[in-house]
Amino acid sequence: MNSEEIAKLANVSRSTVSRVVNNYKNVPETTRKKVQDVIDKYGYTPSSSARTLAGKSNDIIGLFIADIDHTNNNMKWVGINSPYNSELLSKVIQSCKKRGYMVLVNTITKEEECRQLEQHFKNRMLFGGIFVGFPYHMKALEEISEKKYNMVFIDQWQKNDSIAKNVNNVNCDNVKGAKLVVEYLIEQGHRDIAFVKGDYRLSSFERLQGYKEALTQNGIPINDELILTGEYRDDTAYNSVKKMLEKNRPTAIFSANDIMALGVVKAIKEYNLDFPNDIAVVGFDNLQYMDWSSLKLTTVKVDMDQLAEKAVDMLFSGEKGIYELLQPELVIRDSVPKIK
């Protein structure tokens, strides 16, 4: 059964069938009911391509997660397997389902794949797309952003980036979150504070910026030997901390995410030091499983529910250039004892 046969049975034009299927308002109610009765009787379902040709976008939202290798040591980029991305994925799916939309999840492993996505937006195969975890200033991503499709980026662009006006953005205030951590550590008596940084994502650069600004504002010199490579990986963080402990012994280590904090604590314990009494540790993200972890890790909360809701809301806003900065919250547990 096709639309032409439905039109004949209902004694209307094919274009009228199309308007009924796509829920246009300029159809008399009696005509709409007549066509709908035939559709229901014969179980007619329009193809997605037919809806697209009629000017209707699909009810599918793409969620694109970066799995691109931009690390210095050729180790795999932490993308789809990241607990952070898994948690965010769940929240985005819940938010889209409430609106009657499905989520298509895909990983991007090469820059060229970003360029290939354009065809999906151009042909209206997707209602919109949410992009997560890409390297900052990635050329292919900037190119597709310039086309002004219905796209939302999470922690991707800074507000003063020219590209940000073409798309919608929702970020955590990573600089403020890092400052909250360092200022809390200083309040607890710590001055020798190491920092385990992330990779090439914007969040990594901003958290390092916040760390440095907080030290400077409190009159503490920045020691480059205490700024360690972590790449948002527990194993890289572990190796970096073990190597540092051969020469330096800070009283606290600030890990740019919770995952790396696991590697940090492992290195501390293997060096026969007591965690947290010899070295305090703070993370970032407040992943759900940290609530139940025996580490009782002090960390920075990023509200995942709010992050997902804001991103999905932006897809339905019909606007471009929206920039939302979500506020972080310090979650204090037992991993930072006060220095007496």
In words, what does this structure look like?
Helices cover 40% and strands 16% of the residues. It has 340 residues and is α/β, with parallel strands linked by helices. It has 3 domains: 3-53, lambda repressor-like DNA-binding domains (434 Repressor (Amino-terminal Domain), Orthogonal Bundle); 60-172 and 304-326, Response regulator (Rossmann fold), CATH 3.40.50; 174-302, 3-Layer(aba) Sandwich (Rossmann fold), CATH 3.40.50.2300. Strands 2-1-3-4-5-11 form a 6-stranded parallel sheet. The chain has a 4-stranded parallel sheet with strand order 7-6-8-9. Strands 10-12 form a two-stranded antiparallel ribbon. Helix 1 (3-10) crosses helix 2 (14-21) and helix 9 (174-187) runs parallel beside helix 10 (202-217).
Low-confidence stretches: none
Mean pLDDT across all amino acids: 89
Q: Which range best describes the helical content: under 10%, 10-25%, 25-40%, 40-55%, 55-70% or over 70%?
A: 40-55%
CATH class of the largest domain: Alpha Beta
The ordered H/E elements are HHHHEHEHHEHEEHEHEHEHEEHEE
User: Quick one: how many beta strands?
Assistant: 12
Question: Biggest sheet, in brief?
Answer: 6 strands, parallel
Short note summarizing the structure:
With 340 residues, the protein is α/β, with parallel strands linked by helices. It has 13 helices and twelve strands. The protein has three domains: 3-53, 434 Repressor (Amino-terminal Domain); 60-172 and 304-326, Response regulator (Rossmann fold); 174-302, Response regulator (Rossmann fold, 3-Layer(aba) Sandwich).
